[in-house]
Amino acid sequence: MGLMSGMLMGIVFGIALMAGWQHMMRYRSNKRIAKAVDIKSLSSLNRDDLKKICGENFPEWISFPVFEQVKWLNKQLSKLWPFVADAAEAIIKDSVEPLLEEYRPPGITSMKFSKLSLGTVAPKIEGIRVQSLKNGQITMDIDLRWGGDPSIILAIEAALVASIPIQLKDLKVFTVVRAIFQLAEEIPCISAVVVALLAEPKPRIDYTLKAIGGSLTAIPGLSDMIDDTVTSIITDMLQWPHRIVVPIGGIPVDTSELELKPQGNLTVTVLRANNLKNKELIGKSDPYVVVYIRPLFKVKTKVIDNNLNPVWNETFELIAEDKETQSLIVEVFDEDVGQDERLGIAKLPLIELEAEKSKEIELRLLPSLDMLKIKDKKDRGTLTIQVQPHIVINTAFTHRTGKLYNAPNTGRETNLNLNISSSLTLCSIFLS
């Protein structure tokens, strides 16, 4: 009797234990599924959604990285940097010196490199983001940081002034580079690379200028001239949608599809300005307007003497290559003896304009497009313009700029040819 009751109790206890175990496993499984659903829902939230949920308790350390880290590539780049630097120095010298001559400010007769060395410290790639994988093309955005030790000396000459060597020191570069690789069936599998700097985040290039055996004051405004030249080259030649097309592999390839093409032209009529700031001690300012989309292709109105409410009614035509990213820039200057002084500047994004529709717009003039560094934020007046975008039908349409402020080099597209050794050096970076 005792044996039977013991066996019965053991069976009941075993069944209860198994049932309890099964219930616990089912509970844990349902809990994991619920957590997975919650995590999946959270993964779809962005930073703004989390701020709404958390309110003031949102932790600042939470980040949403869009770039993938590539520590392995930085290691390879450090090893290859001496060879890459040698090839890049020759490319930069051959390609940038003509740009320095083309963008050379008035008063400077010559700007050339007397020494160019990229140093021993390789750039650091913070991350890479693959934008698209189209048929035959790979588009990548590369977050680049470089605080190297380059030795760059510019030989600058001006009228009646001997050549002054200017050294660029403490060079630091913070930018996002867009690289488009044109794929090919033959080794090295890449026929061309398109290189450009993204406008957002804005490229940041910091450096200090030092005169060797002379003084920066020997040429008045020299530092500002060099800064303006560097900014113009970056904005007009390297900032997206502008780009440099680099054939690779030593094989002739058609790069016309990679080059920037006009999307339309913009008819701009400078009508009038009101309440301009007076920069003269005696009398009033003598204003004129400079209009451009690209710094290389500027147009200029006539000068109206002694007037803070001038009327111009002058019409110009400008080329637009990318309405999504480009803007119309208008600057009002006061003509003066020596260097003209800017009265104000305004920016009009082309994406805000409707094709084939004329529109009159009053723009508020600002001291600078970057207002963070400006202390004097007083009103600079307004400029009224009339704009009408047109769609280009003729693919052979060229820059028609009316009265040129800077002589344009029409039909020109930067196209660098690398020798075979440079090509193999650059290609080894991507194949390592």
From TrEMBL:
Keyword Phosphoprotein listed: no
Keyword terms:
Calcium, Lipid transport, Lipid-binding, Membrane, Metal-binding, Repeat, Transmembrane, Transmembrane helix, Transport
Primary site of residence: membrane
Per UniProt, residues of the SMP-LTD domain are: 66-249
Extract one GO BP annotation from the record: lipid transport
Cited Gene3D superfamilies: C2 domain (2.60.40.150)
- C2 domain boundaries: 247-365
Give compartment(s). Answer: Membrane
GO MF terms held by the record: lipid binding; metal ion binding
Q: How does it sit in the membrane?
A: Single-pass membrane protein
One Pfam match, given by its short name, reads SMP_LBD
A Gene Ontology cellular-component term: membrane
Q: Where are the transmembrane segments?
A: 6-25
* Record PROSITE patterns: C2, SMP
**Family, similarity comment:** Belongs to the synaptotagmin family.
Please state what the protein is called: Synaptotagmin-5
